[in-house]
Amino acid sequence: MLMTVDVVKYFELSMASLRIVLIVSIVCISAITLAAGARKQSEVISDICSSSFTEGQYDSRDVYYRRVRDPNKHISARLVRYFRFGGILQAISEETEIPRDNLVTGGASQFQDQSSGLGQAVHAAHIIRVGSINSKLGKKNQSLNRALQNYIGHTQNVLRAANAWHGVGGDIDKYQSNQLGVLATVDFGSTLETNDRRTVETLITDFRNIIDKYVRDGTHTSDEKKILDADKVIVYCVVPLMLHEEGKAGYDMVKSGEFVTKYDK
Ligand SMILES: *[C@@H]1O[C@H](CO)[C@@H](O)[C@H](O)[C@H]1NC(C)=O
């Protein structure tokens, strides 16, 4: 069961919204409850994609973390960060000898760094939404395990429509879980080869198709239409090389020890 809307947010929702959810599906409610029990708090850590905290620009670190992102950039980050994540998984696999496609499962998030703190209209939305981490990782290397927990627990605050369970956010969640096996075939440790280029192109096309469904073909609801602007969703201008470099950066980050230094908090 995949979830778009963050579980923690659900418990902050009014009873009215909860009733709507109930009507939609009793099954989903039980899945949410289950996952909420399982989800662990991960640390709030600034990272590259979300830009780093600059003193003076925001009143406090707390205000900084609660700022609401441009939905278009949030959606783009979900593709770009997915490749960085692919590189991270490859390097962790090499270090621990746990197969790449065995490190994380698809499905509902188990980790979350924060709730939005801004009421119903704003969600703390995961950028990478995948399920659990292989328990072997914790036994092999605690630091890498904690760093990975924090990495996938990271959220950005966005307007609800960019994260809607039944909308574009949900489809991206499914994409991120369903493509884990494909992502694990790309070699991020060296230069982009022809076969990998084709794979990356296909991953980009599939992602764009999701966005197109909401931005262009009119199946979106009016509030989704309002918040997503095709020209501003950066995924329309990304090329395979850039995404591969993103993956390489993730790979190198683990190999150099920077990943653990930055995320094992
Ligand atoms: C865990 O991984 C980090 C980063 O690769 C490495 O520096 C460290 O030595 C590893 N620790 C163990 C116990 O293998």
Task: Describe it.
- The chain crosses the membrane at residues 20-38.
- Keywords: Membrane, Transmembrane, Transmembrane helix.
- The structure is a single chain.
- The chain has 265 residues and is mainly alpha-helical.
- The protein has one domain.
- 54% of the residues lie in helices and 5% in strands.
- It is built from 13 helices and four strands.
- It has helices at 7-12, 15-24, 26-38, 61-66, 71-96, 135-140, 142-153, 168-178, 180-183, 194-215, 222-227, 240-255, 258-263; strands at 40-41, 111-112, 122-126, 155-159.
- The strands form two sheets. The protein has a two-stranded parallel sheet. Strands 3-4 form a two-stranded antiparallel ribbon.
- Helix 8 runs antiparallel to helix 10.
- The chain is globular and about 40 Å long.
- Bound molecules: 2-acetamido-2-deoxy-beta-D-glucopyranose.
- 2-acetamido-2-deoxy-beta-D-glucopyranose is lined by residues 95, 141, 143-144, 257, 260.
- Residues 95, 141, 143-144, 257, 260 line the site of 2-acetamido-2-deoxy-beta-D-glucopyranose (NAG).
Radius of gyration: 18 Å
> What number is the mean pLDDT?
75
Continuous helix count: 13
Number of strands: 4
Shape: globular
Name the poorly predicted regions.
1-37, 45-59
Proportion of residues in extended strands? 5-15%
Instruction: Please write the string of helix (H) and strand (E) elements.
Output: HHHEHHEEHHEHHHHHH
Order of strands side by side in the largest beta sheet? Answer: 1-2
Q: In whole angstroms, how far apart are the ends?
A: 29 Å
Biggest β-sheet strands, sense, barrel = 2 strands, parallel
Bound molecules: 2-acetamido-2-deoxy-beta-D-glucopyranose
Q: Level of helix content?
A: 40-55%
Structural class: mainly alpha
| Number of domain units | 1
Keywords: Membrane, Transmembrane, Transmembrane helix
